[in-house]
Amino acid sequence: MNQTTSKQRPSVEVAVTMRREAVVGAMSRWQSHRWALESVDLIEEGQVSTATLLNKNDSSERWLHTGYKVELFTDDAEGYYLNVTTDAPCWFVLWRMEEDAGISDVPVAKPEMVSLSYHDAGRWMDAQETVDQVPLPPEMVAWLQSFVDKYHVIEPKKRKRPESFKRLEDRFGNPVSISTDKKFGGSGHG
To answer: How many CB atoms lie within 10 A of CB 26?
Structure first.
């Protein structure tokens, strides 16, 4: 694993493999193929960003996309903490369909970004992007855990003042007084 940690942010370079597979069964009436994230693998530093067809047959094809840098940011330590403390830490990949990729006669799924942060993945999904995940290998879990141990600070929970102790105000922001004296209205009580 080739990790950069000098004066720069900690980072690794990765390649993403996307798989196009035939859809079988009733769903094939609407869609003949679908794309899926197959893997994220560490690569040597400095590889050029490329898309390479690894193999193709009647039912599937696999594409390798290189040149993605995954950097760790100290201000996103909580996002990494949320990932590394789950039962299944993972890579998150945002990918889009590229209609005119110039590399295939059909649209190709092209990874746009790779991250280890739950916060990144959440923002991407909130923006209606396609985000998939694959398991993080043990050596990467250890690398991410060491970053989290160094930079993540658990925020102390702030005690919330009970509602019963808050000052009551009317709709205009004026203080309200409440009396426990019982007042009976009307005549006849004498």
So the answer is: 7
> If you write DSSP's letter for every residue of 29-83 in order, what string do you get?
GT-SEEEEEEEEEE--TT----EEEEEE-SSEEEEEEEEEEEE--GGGHHHHHHH
Q: What is the CA radius of gyration of the chain?
A: 27
pTM, two decimal places = 0.76
d(CA 34, CA 22): 7
Work out whether strand 90-98 and strand 11-22 pair parallel, antiparallel, or are unpaired: unpaired
Q: How far apart are the first and last CA of the chain?
A: 92
C-alpha span between 40 and 94 (Å, rounded): 12
Placement of tokens 């000052």 in the chain: 167
Closest to 9 in 3D by CA, of 65, 91, 81, 77 = 77
- At residue 181, the pLDDT reads 73
In this structure, are residues 69 and 20 in contact, taking their beta carbons and an 8 Å threshold?
Answer: no
| DSSP H or E segment with residue 27 | none
Backbone angles phi, psi at 39, to 5 degrees: -160, 160
pLDDT means per 10 residues, the chain with 190 residues, are 67 96 86 93 87 89 95 97 97 92 76 98 97 98 98 82 69 75 61
How far is 72 from 69, CA to CA, in rounded Å? Answer: 10
Beta bridge partners of 56: 61
For 150, the 3-state DSSP assignment is: helix
Q: How far apart are CA 14 and CA 69, in angstroms?
A: 6
